[in-house]
Amino acid sequence: MEARGRNLQPDIIRPGVWNRRSSTKRRFFVTPEELEQELERPISDTEREEVLSLVRWFTNRYPSPEARLAYVRRAYGRWAPAIGREERKLESRSGQSANNG
């Protein structure tokens, strides 16, 4: 799958992506086709300005490369355990269905 100059492999698609467009804030799985469709759609002016606003906030909040790296290390420390739990949950579900089939 090739989009915007990046080679995207389906194995990078992880479950648990927050559906920002849903008012329920439920989790959903992104299929390779849905990912490709989103990557190929044009970015709206509103979306572009929202992203640029977030970049401005982040670079003002963390002005130096050292501060940004320190933030990323702290954030990764918070996210990694949750990502691991989700992956283990999925692995156990797929193992159960394989054993029941």
Brief digest:
The protein is mainly alpha-helical. The chain contains 3 helices and 4 strands, in the order ββββααα.
Mean pLDDT: 76
Number of strands: 4
Q: Compute the CA-based radius of gyration.
A: 18 Å
Count of helical stretches: 3
Reported for the largest beta sheet, the result is: 2 strands, antiparallel
What is the helix content? Answer: 55-70%
How are the strands of the largest sheet arranged? 1-2
The arrangement of helices and strands along the chain is EEEEHHH
Low-confidence stretches: 5-15
The percentage of residues in β strands lies in: 5-15%
Euclidean distance between termini CA atoms: 31 Å
Anisotropy-based shape: flat
Structural class: mainly alpha
How do the strands and helices of this protein lay out in sequence?
Elements: E1 2-3, E2 6-7, E3 17-18, E4 27-28, H1 32-40, H2 45-61, H3 65-100
Antiparallel strand pairs: 1-2, 3-4
Defining traits:
101 residues, mainly alpha, two-stranded antiparallel sheet, two-stranded antiparallel ribbon, flat
Structure description:
By secondary structure, the protein is mostly helical. It has helices at 32-40, 45-61, 65-100; strands spanning 2-3, 6-7, 17-18, 27-28. The protein contains three helices and four strands. The longest helix has 36 residues, at 65-100. The chain is flat, with a radius of gyration of 18 Å. The two termini are 31 Å apart. Residues 5-15 have low confidence and may be disordered.
